[in-house]
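Hello forum,

I keep getting stuck at the same step: I have a sequence, I want structure tokens, and every attempt I make locally crashes halfway through. Rather than fight my setup again tonight, could one of you with a working pipeline run this one for me? It's a single chain of 251 residues.
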Amino acid sequence: MSSTDQVSVAASAGALYQGARPAGRATPGPSPAAALLRRFPPRASTADWPATGTPSAQLMTRLMADPFLGGPATGLQNRRRGLTRILDWLERQPGDTWQDRWLASAADTCGNQAWRRLPMHEQPEIGDGAGDSEHIGLNIARAMSVLVCADVLRPSLGWLLTPATPAGLVADLTRVRDPQGFARLAEIGRADGSSMHTTQLALRRIAASWPPRAAGSGTSPSATACDCCTHWRNTTTSPKPALSPATAASG
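Reply #2:
Ran it on my machine without issues. Output:
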């Protein structure tokens, strides 16, 4: 499926434009969105896969090498700190794989900001030299993006969308997974006159819909119509994780 087709299907399902309203009164008849969902059902989920069972030491070696390298030396140091904190915290959770431990921790129900309090507050004794809590939280967020791009963890779509898809995920997916594909999508946005805001929103929505597949697996990752439709269904019909005021404030 071409990049142009991906964007067209996503737009048809209402996935690219936040807050869009129908131009006129809805007419009776089959819903085009429902027809798309029937035509492109969600991908089947998988309980286990090679990358999520990788031992900690081997995983750190992989994530501190190409294609995950990028940015200044200080950024690599902060990434290592964030990865160390997340993996040490996950190793305290029950389960046989990183994904098992992630789900057991209940972090997946917190959204992509509030969850950071878990590895931060449950491991106050870790002296990673990162400085204040805001800096530690940023290290954790950036390291989590790497774990997602490396297919070590597969957070739910609700997590990826709450409160909004992390902007850094687009940059990481572009570098690690499919630089040509994301460049083409950005080119389409410029060619049809879309604003920078709309184009970036589309790229973030597509990043959240990106199919799980390990970087460097020898295959070319590709978001398909079923991924766009699944994203649309979750953003319009499924509630996002409920966050208490205290939880939201701590994120």
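Residues 73-91 form the longest helix (19 residues). If your local run keeps crashing, start a new thread with the error log.
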